[in-house]
Amino acid sequence: MPRPARILAISGSLREDSFNSALVRAARKLQPSTLDIEIFDGLRDIGPYDQDLDTPELRPAPVAELRRRIAEADGLLIATPEFNYGIPGVLKNALDWASTPGPGAHSPLHRKPAAIMGAAPTNFGSVRAQLALRQAFVWIDADLVVKPEVVVFRAHERFDETGNLTDPGTIDLVSGLLDALAAKTRCGAVTVVARLTARPGLEDRVRETALSLVDASRAEPGNLSYRTFADLTDPGSLVVVEEWESRAAFDAHLTSPHMAEAFAAGAALLTGPPVEHIIAS
Ligand SMILES: Cc1cc2nc3c(=O)[nH]c(=O)nc-3n(C[C@H](O)[C@H](O)[C@H](O)COP(=O)(O)O)c2cc1C
Question: Is the overall model pTM greater than 0.85, yes or no?
Fold first, then answer.
């Protein structure tokens, strides 16, 4: 039986008695056995986004920690308040820090399964913030749960005075959202097959580059095997077959420093991006 999917949950509110933080805690209580939700509480420590500092060497420690925890998670759960019809600045700021590529070609949010919900004491609260968040996730290229939509309006009527979610309809919606997130989160081992086609005359360079990745990739956490094969029917092509213990381990591999170098070299050496098939085993 696969292990439960590790979900990083973020509330977009810093407020002590926040409805959104209460919603995240409710989700944790309601989690099915397929999920293991941990709550991120470092939002307050994340400074304003600064592109000059957005490099692996210069990123502030709280940002590096957020990016690491997202990369290691199998999925994300976000509860957003609505501030002035939009996403609260602290949440958008944190997502901006987590959205950029590096050290590999992809951001830690790339293809990450994610579910969003939101609470407000008003009648339409969180609807517009959730729409804006969905839009941000289009650029980020996360794998977003579309339904159910969990809009906890008139939130003060749905929690008790100690912040426990008591409204049966909302409990059902949150449970439905968690089931949909679990379905998106593949936690078994994955096999990845990539075909690399060399530009004419650069076949030897492609082979050397691919071989230099083998040992580094095998040494990464979660790698079960990493092999390259010559394609006997096409001397210009090389096939890489990798097995990773989880999708999250593979995604973390894509952001490793040696893969950053490989992606940079690949543009000059290959005729196109690798053709990749991910097979859940
Ligand atoms: C700066 C600010 C802007 C707000 N803008 C909206 C808004 O556009 N729509 C809305 O429904 N509520 C708005 N509210 C009210 C919030 O929905 C309410 O404060 C909510 O409880 C915040 O979420 P939290 O309980 O998780 O902290 C705003 C509140 C603040 C402080």
Answer: no
